[in-house]
Every structure is written in C-alpha cells, then in structure tokens.
Design goal:
The chain is of the alpha/beta class and about 180 residues long. The chain has one domain: 3-Layer(aba) Sandwich (Beta-carbonic Anhydrase, Chain A), CATH 3.40.1050. It is about 45% helix and about 15% strand. The chain is built from eight helices and five strands, in the order ααβαβαβααααββ. A five-stranded mixed β-sheet has the order 2-1-3-4-5, with helices on both faces. α3 links the parallel β1 and β2. The structure holds zinc ion. The site of zinc ion (ZN) has 7 residues, from loops.
Length: about 180
C-alpha cells in the first residue's frame, strides 16, 4: 500500500472513530518513540485545532509535523523539511490546510489575529486574489496548493526525489465538520 493510501485509511479510521494507534497506549508509547522514525511530514497550520497524528490515526513518531501560521512556509520550515526528507527517509509530504482558519480570515479582513500583524500575512495575498476573496475556505485551499508548489520549487533534493518516484507532495484540506481530509490534487 502506498503511503498516501495509508494516510487516507488512517483518516477514514478517525472519521469512523476506530483507532489503530499505539500512541494512545502509554505503556507502548516509549517503545514506539525510541524505535520509529517518521515517514510522513505534515505541514500544518499554527491554529489547526486537531493534531495531524489524530486526523490520520498514526503513531506519534510516524509523522513529523512542521507548523506554519496559515501554512505560510518560510525558509526555516523548508530547511527542516529538506533535512527530514534526507535523514528520516520521509517519502510523503502533506500540506494541510483546514476549515475556518483564523489566520486566513485575518488576512481577508486585514486584521491582527493571534499576534500576527496584517503585514505578516501578506503571503496569503496571491491566494486571496486568485479566488477573488470568495470565502475563507476557498482562499485556504488555494493557498495550500500554492504552498505545495513553493515546497516543490524550493529544493533540488525534493525535485530529484519526486522525479525518481521516492517522494510525493500532496495538498489536503481538513474539514472540521466531518473530520475528513479533502485531497486537493
Ligand atoms: Zn489555520
């Protein structure tokens, strides 16, 4: 089974309230943490209300989470991702937007939120223009796609691995109403 399929199945277990995950079991969590290396990196928004490990029903060490406000990924985030891909054998990067993102809403309104000034959310402008300010969720989905492209464009390491089939980058949108990931590709 491919990694993306594994993540889709994990999200289905989460939606169905059926968990496989070892990280809920305290006795096993230390063993899991010591032995495992992450195989998926998730770029998640700073104010995403539910942790990726829960959404995908994975063990805590399966996923390396890179948090970025409004998925505005910066060079520090990108270098961390590149390091993770090279050192942890990560073969899937999921860029995850989410419903009702307060940072995207703030960018749409030109307001300060969660300590972020409007000027710090300028990276969302391309998505706002592309969607003609349609809705906060539409802007978030567009921006999540654009962030995926930014990651691809950042690193020769990523491009080389994608071209030889050892890395995949996908974009998804987490729906709070249903618990489901909507895959944007
Ligand atoms: Zn958010």
């Amino acid at each position: 089974m491919g990694l993306l399929e594994k993540m889709k199945e994990g999200n289905q277990r989460y939606v169905s309230r059926i968990s496989n995950s070892l990280n809920r079991n305290l006795e096993q969590s230390f063993e899991v943490a010591c032995k495992k290396k992450p195989f998926v990196a998730v770029v998640a928004c700073f104010d995403s209300p539910i942790a990726p490990e829960v959404i995908f029903d994975c063990d805590s060490r399966d996923i390396l989470v890179v948090q970025a406000a409004g998925n505005l990924i910066n060079n520090v985030n990108l270098v961390r991702l590149e390091y993770a891909v090279q050192n942890f054998n990560i073969s899937l990067i999921v860029v995850m937007g989410h419903q009702q993102c307060r940072l995207v809403q703030a960018a749409l309104n030109g307001e300060k939120v969660l300590g972020y000034q409007p000027s710090q959310l300028k990276g969302l402008e391309t998505a706002i223009e592309a969607t003609q300010k349609k809705s906060v969720d539409a802007v978030c989905k567009m921006h999540t796609r654009l962030t995926k492209e930014d990651i691809f464009g950042f690193s020769e390491v990523f491009r080389e691995k994608i071209n030889n089939g050892s890395l995949q980058i996908v974009a998804g949108f987490f729906c709070l109403d249903t618990g489901r990931m909507e895959w944007l590709d």
